Structure formats: structure tokens, C-alpha cells
Amino acid sequence: MIEMVTPEGFPSLPYLSPGALVTAPQRTLYISGQVGVDATGQAGAGIAEQARLATANVNAVLAAAGMGPGNLAKVTIYLTDEADVPAFMEAAAGALPSPPPATTLLIVKGLAGPNLLVEIEAIAVD
To answer: 82 in helix, strand or coil?
Structure first.
């Protein structure tokens, strides 16, 4: 069981929960960074397409382990451009559970390839 934790007085944010409490021994899935590429390795044309592909790739790994977005306890998002945050949030909306998992978003200088704009890694429990 995963319980999202928001301390009293913390702001309610639609895109993250301050904490995720796992209350019993569970299977744990560590998802390596998933980038915005399709099954052929082709990167999406822009941040919106790459965000959709990266979240779809995370969800595919979850499904392969018999899990779904509701099993996400922690997500870390890496973007290469701060200006892409709103477009990422809009494109990824609905791909993550509600309430959202504990989430960290970082702006980084670059990813594994110069055409990659987003990478998402996650921890899920079942």
C-alpha cells in the first residue's frame, strides 16, 4: 500500500506529493531513466512529444512488471530547458496517478544525446 503524505500547512500541488509512505513489505521496481524515444529509438520532435513518449515508456516498464501508474512512489524528471516545464506538465498530464507520487524535477545541462529533452526515472511498489 502506498499512501501519499502531505504535511498540514503544505501547499497542495497538482503535480507532486511531498512524500510517499509504503506501509507493508512490497515488490519494488526501480525504473531506469526513460527518454522521449519511440520503439525504433527515434526521439520525439519536441518537448510535448518527448514527454508523451517518456511517460509511455515508464508505463510500459510498469506494465511489464505487472504494475501501473498507481504503483509509482517516486518519480524524478530531468529536463534540459527550464522553459519546457509547462509544456512537459501539460503533455504528461494524465500519465501519472492522482494524487501524484513524490516527485523531483531537475533542470540539467544535457542528457545522453543532444536531441533528448526529457528523462524520467521512477520507483514503484506493489
So the answer is: helix
